[in-house]
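Morning run. Coffee first, then this:
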Amino acid sequence: MELLKLYIVRHGEVLHNVLKRYSILNEDLTENGINQALELREKLKNISYDVILSSPLIRARHTAELINIHNKEILIEEELKERSCGDLSDQPLEVTNREEYWNYNTVIQYGTSENIQSFFERIFSFLEELSRKNYQSVLIVAHSGVTKAFSAYFEGIGDGFFLNRGLGNCEIKEYEIERIKD
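And here it is:
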């Protein structure tokens, strides 16, 4: 059995993180977010990776560029986009019950936001496809919601509550997945 090592990173801080608002804007990192990424870059010196896979959103791509200490290829993966908040965009986080918004078993639909089960399935499908690639180690730069979905995939759905199972800005977590050879 061969294992593929995955390092998942959440992008650096952006303005909507500071303002505690939902946002579908494709915004860049704040100055603090840039500094967070540069600090993470130093921590990655001793981590080997074959490639960086990044969400197409600017905040993730910029983080990927800043942390790429080994100058590896950065590939853009549409599936790594954040869960769409739809018409909640520019609303304060308090307009929803945050526990319920990130409850995998919820029956509540908040406006036109992406359904959590569909969102997780998108990430699970990405991971299944990635397990068929010929990499040894991959650095993935994405979003808080994506890190929650990784937690569900590798650690299980459990009670279904994911609000506190995501990574903070420029935090990193390591997972391993069995490589599938076709």
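Residues 54 and 141 are 5 Å apart (CA to CA). Good start to the day.
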